[in-house]
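Question thread 4412

I'm putting together a teaching handout and wanted feedback from people who do this every day. The idea is simple: show students a protein as raw sequence, then show them the structure tokens that encode its fold, then repeat with a second protein so they can compare. Below is the first pair exactly as I plan to print it.
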Amino acid sequence: MVNGAPILIVTAGDDKIDNGKYNAQFGAKAKMLKADEVTQLIGYSVGGVCPFAVNDGVKVYLEESLKRFQTVFPACGSSKSAIELTLPELEKYSQYAAWVDVGKSQL
């Protein structure tokens, strides 16, 4: 949550959020939503959260860790679904707000 609004950061599956970088980027402490909050605020259940068609007011950010891949496989609304996308496709379909460097991994 940033300024009371939920955000969704899409990262590589092996990356984690760096609290210091997150705070520098967003001016707030990183906080993982509880499972019931995810469904209510983002619009998908844990395990199926995807960066497409999220609830109104949710801003989607893409983490720099994704840039090391030719294609990525975000979930598509359930824990048993995913779609292969290029980064330009991910940008287009997620309607992302910005690329951010808030992960612990180094490119």
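The second pair follows. I'd like the answer to focus on this one:
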Amino acid sequence: MRLSEIYSKPERVLSFEIFPPKHDEELKNIDATLEVLCDLKPDYISVTFGAGGSSNNNKTIALARKIKDEYKVEPVVHLTCMTYSKAEIDEFCKELADNGIENILALRGDYNPNVPPKDDFKHASELIEYIKPKTSFCIAGACYPECHPESSDKISEFINLRKKVDAGAEVLLSQLFFDNKFFYDFVENARIAGINVPITPGIMPVLNAGQIKRMVTTCGASLPTRFERIIERYGDNKEALFDAGMYYAISQIIDLLANGSDGIHLYTMNNPVVARRICDAIKNII
């Protein structure tokens, strides 16, 4: 089923993100995770995609095919472009189509010092513009409630986001954030800018102090005062921080749903315990 069809249903959308395990043996054992995730009845599961080299990306395709064929859940495959040529993107798209994949999340990708960028694609909007006329995929794009870390200002952020949508993105999935006000303001400004596709908030429960530092550094997400107090109070207590991080994420989700969000995209970190606990907490309101 295409994402556009999923988002046209009256029910709110529940989706997860997972990543392919690095080692082949772990890929064989991914079923334990998938059994829990798919039992939670998500509308789709997105699968991340690597930069440079085909090994990890082959795992992405194999994992997406498993989700679709064995678990009967719609996969959405991430497709990055910064380190690939047009010919390589053509080959990836052909392989995805040959494996029955209908939906992709088009991304520029992060800079990797070990994998030099190529010149064919500078932005995700260029990737969307390139593949939209050549393929039958339903294409999703990414958005940043607090602005992309490389954006010069909010105006340029929405100009560039509008380019993605005009090029063919039919759904937008947000980067993580910890203050819902950023998301609400972002959606309001997107609508003013004429961006009228579904915008789904992405939520990642923060479960340890190291993870918090990585997320803030790589994503540019700011930490509200009440979240900083949680870190100060429970940062040295692994179990307590896990519980506090879970409750914080659940409270975010409840507030988003109560304020009309069309769904929730949960960054699971391949942790089925996290997904189960959150879904149990919101099962009566989503």
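Top answer:
Good format. For the second protein you could add a caption like this: The first helix runs from residue 3 to 6. The longest strand covers residues 74-80.
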